[in-house]
Amino acid sequence: MIQLANVNKRFGTSSTAITAVDGVNLTIEEGKIYGIIGYSGAGKSTLIRLLNGLEQPTDGSVEVNGRKISSIGGKELRQARQKISMIFQHFNLLWSRTVKENITFPLEIAGVKKAERERKAAELIELVGLAGRENAYPSQLSGGQKQRVGIARALANDPEVLLCDEATSALDPETTDAILDLLTSINERLGLTIVLITHEMHVIRKICHEVAVMEAGRVVETGDVLQLFQSPKEQITKRFVSQVTEPEDAKKVMSLMRQDYPDGTLVKLAFVGERTEQPVLASLIREYPVDVSILQGNISQTRGGAYGTMILQITGEPEATANAIQYLHEQGVQTEVFEK
Amino acid sequence: MIETYFPNVDWAKMWEATVETLYMTSVSTIFTFIIGLALGILLFLTGPGHIWANKLINLLTGSIVNIFRSIPFIILIILLIPFTKFLIGTIRGPEAAMPALIIGAAPFYARMVLIALQEIDKGVLEAARSMGAKTSTIIFKVLLPESMPALISGITVTAIALVGYTAMAGIIGAGGLGTLAFLDGFQRSREDVTLVSTILILIVVFILQFAGDFAVKKLDKR
Fold first, then answer.
1. Chain B residue numbers touching A86 (CB-CB < 8 A)
2. Which residue, A268, B86, B115, B204, is the most exposed by fewest CB within 10 angstroms?
């Protein structure tokens, strides 16, 4: 379990200090994939570095699996770090070492014997799908392959926690998905806790169990991923959610539709979990004297279940329209009516 | 035939001088490499934001490096005469040239080491720290291998500069090709001796440059 209590991190002297992390309280349970999302400058990079002591908090305490990272140093901290490994946006491999030598590097640091290092490296190369490339140098690998080396290197000392610092931000969408799948399977197979920071809601949606949203150094919202998709409270969370649920052109389509059918009511629906599989719309049309046209629809798969949004134009008598919207409410579908 | 073109060249003496030059250059290069590396690493690690960040030591080391790097070599030799006499017991011969050669070249190389280390990707250092590496591991397994091509090309440039320094030291009697060219060649107006000495110095320089470039090419896997 990872626990942050009242953690502050300020950089610089008091007069010109920048508060990177501001009063953060966070609990991350063992075996979870925990996502921290925020725009650049939100303090998430600093936050994740507090977890392995690359940064020390100005005040507050950071505890990882019973070890108080914020108050240890020297040898004790170095040993703790062997169990809290990290992967990076730009991979940070040593160019002077081959794939295998990069993977054995943390084992050399831990003082593991050569035969055992070789055995472990071979096993990890197999695990991350790099068999046959063990003697290649990083410069001969693609971005996705480099990150696989990064992951294998991070797993070498059998860590309890894996920290991912924007691990997929430098990769193309397909490679991103492959790396995310690899992280998911590692989480399931080895049961290690993964903490990742990202600015892409796609990453959160695809692999995280829980999420924290950061803005200006503060954690403004936390919770189950599906929950957050269903009912984002903060403005910034809504913006992140709309990254994956609303293509940019939806708003344009809406204003165009409105020009064509000025008398309609535009409603945004959000379906969560099982709701997505029930024929809510079909029964709506059957039971109420209204016309319904679908302007835009979208379903996202999260780890906790499906989440969908749909934008409808409902035309009909005002009363019938109001009843229809009321019906949607009763069915447990979240609705949002766009004002004219 | 050689006699007609180079009537005054004593080949045995020429060979002896070449060996002296090679001896002075190689020994001083080895010491320069070690001392320069140590100074460069110290400068790097005591710099702001690094593991041993320390303003005072950084400033002190930086100043020493800058001062010795700025003194013209020919003046440095003269300034170091008492020191050389104390250390070696004489101020003549190849050994007597070495303190000045090393003290002149090591700070020069230390700067190059610093630049080489500053070019290492900061992320790689952070990764090593995140794995729990101690400082000695970071120095020997990250800093040195990751900057090796730049360290080698730096020592190549320094070794070539040292060949030049040995020739200068030759003027005050250090021996080697410099002494030969100056005393036997220039002062006695035997142009052929000066010419052959110069050609031999050039050959030494070319071989050094070639070996350095070759090593860099072999080492650089980027």
1. 127, 130
2. B86
